[in-house]
Amino acid sequence: MLVSQSDLEKGRFSLGNVIKNPNSNTTHVSVSLFFSPQVIYTVTVSRNPLSILLVVVQLAALGVIFFSGPVFPQALFPKTIFITGIFLGIWAFWEMRKSKLQATPDVAQGSRLIKSGPYQLIRHPMYTGLLLITISVLISYFSPLRLIAAVILTVDLLIKIQYEEKLLNKYFKEYGRYSEHTWRLVPFIY
Q1: String of b and e for 107-119 (b: at least 16 CB within 10 Å)?
Q2: Whether the predicted pLDDT of 99 surpasses 90
Q3: Are residues 105 and 175 in the same domain?
Q4: Which pLDDT score is estimated for 179?
Q5: For 120, phi and psi rounded to 5 degrees?
């Protein structure tokens, strides 16, 4: 559980509804933060095995990268990449509040196609942010283990993107048009 029972009891977080949808493979969890009854995000968690596998591999690779040595770069160039990755990820996360945030690549019912903020240029800016952070850590604190984890993360994200875009194309009629004017991960490259 991401939120401990102690945090719930002390009012730091509150879980709203936890609803298992019998008509789909999803569970919806509403989370409120910082003593506020207002729901900040509703996260939908899929029970689709492929979606869960992709997220587990992603989290395992990130765990190896972040817990196998120092993380925060000291040199200016990797520090700039690191901060850019964090900024891009937070900005994308902030823009995604307008829709339904997914822990997995599945599209939640009632989702909106977000085309504002970094999504005007990049279709998967959260993944781009993760890769920028990973690159900065590799530059600063290289190890063969981290390199292997970074390769696994990259391959996992590329598979996840392909899978997610198939689902987005099915769910949003305008996704094809949107994808013609945006880049998957890196502007002007991919």
Answers
A1: bbeebeebeebbb
A2: no
A3: yes
A4: 95
A5: -70, -25
How many domains does one find in the chain?
A: 2
Give the per-residue pLDDT at 160.
96
CA distances from 129 to 73, 88, 92, 158, 169 (A): 15, 5, 9, 14, 23
Per-residue pLDDT at 5 exceeds 60:
no
- 165 with 71, same domain? yes
* Residue 88 confidence (pLDDT): 97
**Whether residues 5 and 97 fall in one domain:** no
Given a cut of 80, whether residue 182 has pLDDT beyond it is: yes
User: How far from the centroid of its chain's Cα atoms is residue 128's Cα?
Assistant: 10
Burial (CB count within 10 angstroms: exposed 0-12, middle 13-18, buried 19+), residue 125 = buried
16 vs 9, 32, 37, 47, 52, CA distance in Å? 13, 7, 9, 20, 23
| Whether the Cβ atoms of residue 3 and residue 13 lie closer than 8 Å to each other | yes
- Which CATH number does the domain housing residue 147 bear? 1.20.120.1630
